[in-house]
Amino acid sequence: MKRCNKAFTLTELLVALGVIAVLCAILLPVIFNILPNQNVIMAKRAYYATQTLVSELINDEGCYPDKTSYSSGVRVGFDDGFGYPNCSRWGGKDNTGTILTEGDAETKFATLFLDKLGISGSTDTDYTQNSITWHIVKGSKLGTKDDPDQYIEVVADVNGTDGGPNLGQSTSAAKIGGTVGTGTNYDRFTMRVYADGRVKIDDADTWAIDAVTITKDVTE
């Protein structure tokens, strides 16, 4: 009995490979667009974490008591550099020297903000927590009393300084050991924390603004 062996011809194999290649070319961009961008996810996390911590600080009567009704020495919030007995990280037991003598408002904010993150520090240095590297830019514009439009800058590197590419669109985000990016793979952005507790992403960091902006119509 004669046995008949069937197999793919070279032409059929090439046609099959061609079909697979066409399908890959069509589907891969779709798949990559569906998969979430990790930097975008982390940018959301950094932004909302900053909003939460700033809200907690500005409403902490122990460290930032309401002085708006005072006739003199008015402070609107983070422009208050004084220390108080019931503010343990700036005044109280840890730093009694600042209770009667006003300290630097930027250092106070940096110290308390980093403490909220679970980090001990206050200097113009990189601090990493939960895969995000934070850098508070000292010498921003926080220091004159009774001016809600003063701000201090907080730079977030959403994949850590060792994760690269260390690119930001705003000057502050880029100058912390990085460069101003011209592509699309950004991992840094700057937030301005205003004296009255507002948090705003630097206008230049459009990638981060897009990341945290909700575009879906909730009425749909």
Describe this entry's structure for a reader.
The longest helix has 25 residues, at 10-34. The N and C termini lie far apart (69 Å). Strands 1-2-3-6-7 form a five-stranded antiparallel beta sheet. It has 220 residues and is an alpha+beta fold. Helix 2 crosses helix 5. The protein has one domain (38-212). 32% of the residues lie in helices and 16% in strands. It has helices at residues 10-34, 38-58, 105-116, 171-175, 206-212, and strands at 126-129, 132-141, 151-157, 167-168, 179-180, 188-194, 199-201. The model is unreliable at 216-220 (pLDDT under 50). It contains five helices and seven strands, in the order H-H-H-E-E-E-E-H-E-E-E-H.
Q: What is the average of the pLDDT values?
A: 80
Largest sheet: 5 strands, antiparallel
Strand content: 15-25%
Give the tally of β-strands: 7
- The main sheet orders its strands as 1-2-3-6-7
Radius of gyration: 26 Å
Specify the helix fraction band.
Answer: 25-40%
Query: What's the oligomerization state?
Result: single chain
End-to-end separation: 69 Å
Count of helical stretches:
5
Number of domains: 1
Detail the poorly predicted runs.
216-220
Helix-strand topology string: HHHEEEEHEEEH
Q: How would you classify the helix and strand content by structural class?
A: alpha+beta
Shape: elongated
